[in-house]
Amino acid sequence: MHLLDRRTKRYPEARTPDELEAPATGNKLYYDNGHKNAEAGFACRVTAAGHRAFVLNYRVKGRERRYKIGDYPGLSVVAARKAAGQTKQEIREGKDPLAKKQADRTAPTVADLCERYKERHLPKKRESSQKDDLSMIERDILPKLGGLKVSEVTYDDIDKLHTKITKKRGAPYRANRVVSLLSKMFNLAIKQWHMRDGRNPCEGIERNSEAKRKRYLKPDELARLVSALDGFADTQAANMVRLLLLTGARFGEVAGARWDQFDLEVGKWTKPASTTKQNTEHEVPLSPEAVQLLQELWDQADDTTVYVFPGRDDVGHRVDLKKPWPAILKAAGISGLRVHDLRHSYASFLVSAGESLPVIGALLGHSQPGTTQRYAHLHNDPLRKATGHVGVLVRGAGKTGAKVVKLGQRDR
Hints:
The chain is an alpha+beta fold. It folds into 3 domains: 2-106, Integrase, DNA-binding domain (Double Stranded RNA Binding Domain, 2-Layer Sandwich); 110-191, Tyrosine recombinase, N-terminal domain (DNA polymerase, domain 1, Orthogonal Bundle), CATH 1.10.150; 219-379, hpI Integrase, Chain A. It has 15 helices and 9 strands. It has helices at 77-92, 97-106, 110-120, 127-145, 155-168, 172-191, 219-230, 235-247, 251-255, 288-300, 324-332, 341-352, 357-364, 369-372, 380-399; strands spanning 2-3, 14-15, 27-31, 42-47, 52-60, 63-72, 262-263, 268-271, 282-285. The strands form 3 sheets. A 4-stranded antiparallel β-sheet has the order 3-4-5-6. Strands 7-8-9 form a 3-stranded antiparallel β-sheet. The protein has a two-stranded parallel sheet with strand order 1-2. A hairpin with a 2-residue loop joins β5 and β6. α3 (110-120) runs antiparallel to α4 and α4 packs across α6 (172-191). The radius of gyration is 36 Å and the shape is elongated. The N and C termini lie far apart (122 Å).
């Protein structure tokens, strides 16, 4: 017999899948032996419950395999017979379609990649960076890409996600951060964890342009800010801002500062690698004002206190200034200033004092000279002042009757 499609002419020996009898138990195979386009091993499997599906029996390396092509009536006899022919061709080429199907079924998804990233790579990053990554994974990556196989993610998938965050959410910088995180994850998946072959799907994604902020405290703003801190009710928050101003440290470094990192007698702060952006230990000198502030805090602290700025009920450390910072700015009459801008302001104070960029970079803990170069334009004022001295000298030379010689003119 051979299998007959319901839409074709009947033959005495042909039967449609609907006419195939169900066994009392288990399942029974009806092979497509009589059709001119039949493939050896192609059959319709009927279960005791009456479910019908097309299968292909074949052998690979001496092992008999049974590959399910599709369910009936979702797949017609004609379409199933054609699919069986294509599958047999793959087998003749040395491929094992069932093994591939099983591998695809167990292949890691983007959700699996995220879990491995959180287990193996995330602990190496700073606490604040860990929070940012976890937020992007939970809010941006998993909802859109979590169910996809790592091996199947394409450039278009990443580009669509980047575009959606940029336009629909109106968060262009966040969109860039998400792509950067995905790029790191896929690099690890390809080069270390062998979860994918080929190129990183994030390659070539056009990032949104980002304007570097150049917000610094002006002298009058600094005076108002210091005055506002003196009268602020949340003294811990005020002292955190003071230490940020006096050291140029990142907020996370100040928030997580421990007393065992400071040598107040020498005036030194040794930041452990786990708290710095470069993941390297950073030792910086402290000004007398910073030492005085820390000494006052130490005198007020309990002997068992670990952190300079302990959290509520002395559990952990304070983690943010979200509520007090706007109130401080309002009291100081300042707008458009972020907590991180205090670090930029610290650098601008050093530039105004005539310090070189390498010195500033060393104090800020920059590992690359290019990072400090963003403050180069602040040298304009000292340069203008310096060139002004030359102008005074030139004017003075003219008033004392000095002889002015035109360029290129020689004495005769």
